[in-house]
Specification:
Layout lengths: L3 E4 L2 H5 L6 H8 L7 E2 L2 E2 L8 H21 L16 E3 L2 H17 L6 E3 L11 H9 L10 E3 L7 E4 L5 E6 H15 L4 H10 L6 E3 L5 E3 L5 E3 H22 L3 E4 L1
Parallel strand pairs: 6-8
Antiparallel strand pairs: 1-4, 1-12, 2-3, 5-11, 6-12, 7-8, 9-10
Length: about 260
């Protein structure tokens, strides 16, 4: 399955009241698109009641806040509803791991491998020596395989069941912005305007093009990608999501 980044309320996410960037593009350009879940197309599944989802998300949020308060890491609450704006984009897995690899190389001082082999990083990535050394040196949420960041300004991470009961690593928006700032200083020293341009100016090479009939056609099969270009694209998407999270006080989730 592919990887999307979502920044918005948990209610809107779990009520499935949002569309991926690919889904939005398909609808805008007249193409059919179905999101596939474990049991088939998600559009065919019955949508949960938004009011029930909101109640469950507020209960989960309040339990997290209570746990943090009892542990001495009290953090501000955030609003939950089914209508608040959201941000989403699709780094996909190759770009995501390219970013983590580039960040690890920046921390350890090793050279970034020039290319990424398509689909090769999910198996054994966390056992790579450069990644393990970087994770030991910097206790970052990025190196802790975080899947959810809550809109707290303080920097910390913890393991906890997500709203579905699955144990995950959770970070904070403040921590993520700090980590991204460190990565940028180590690798690029880029200004915000340049960082924002990477969302569309860097990334995957084109596999297809629009034909004169208005239909997409495949023109290449790319199996190797430029590591730094993918890392920059994923960095830009994650940075946009983190800024959106800070400004709108909403969580960030990895969707896959």
């Amino acid at each position: 399955m592919g990887l999307d980044l979502y920044a918005g309320t948990l209610t809107r996410y779990y009520a499935r009241n949002w569309k991926t960037s690919v889904q939005q593009w398909a609808e805008e350009n007249g193409y059919a698109y179905s999101r596939m879940g474990p049991d088939g197309p998600m559009e065919q599944e019955q949508r949960p009641d938004p009011a029930e989802v909101q109640g469950a998300m507020e209960s989960w949020r309040d339990s997290i806040l209570g746990i943090l308060k009892n542990s001495g890491a009290e953090s501000p609450s955030w609003p939950e509803d089914n209508e608040a704006p959201y941000y989403t984009d699709k780094p996909d897995w190759d770009a995501w791991y390219a970013l983590l690899l580039a960040a690890a190389c920046g921390v350890t001082g090793e050279a970034i491998p020039p290319t990424v082999e398509k689909g090769s990083w999910r198996e054994g990535f966390w056992e790579l020596p450069v990644v393990k050394r970087a994770a030991e040196e910097r206790q970052w949420s990025l190196f802790g395989a975080a899947e959810l960041w809550l809109p707290f300004p303080d920097r910390f991470r913890f393991d906890c069941p997500n709203p579905l009961g699955n144990s995950i690593t959770i970070g904070t928006t403040g921590g993520l912005l700090y980590e991204l700032g460190e990565v940028n200083q180590l690798l690029w020293q880029a200004g915000e305007e340049e960082i924002l341009s990477w969302t569309t100016g860097e990334g995957y090479p084109a596999d297809g093009e629009m034909g004169p009939d208005g239909k997409l056609r495949r023109v290449a099969v790319n199996t190797q990608y430029d590591t730094v270009s993918l890392a920059k694209m994923a960095f830009s998407i994650l940075y946009r999501g983190a800024v959106f999270s800070r400004e709108h006080r909403v969580p960030i989730l990895m969707d896959y």
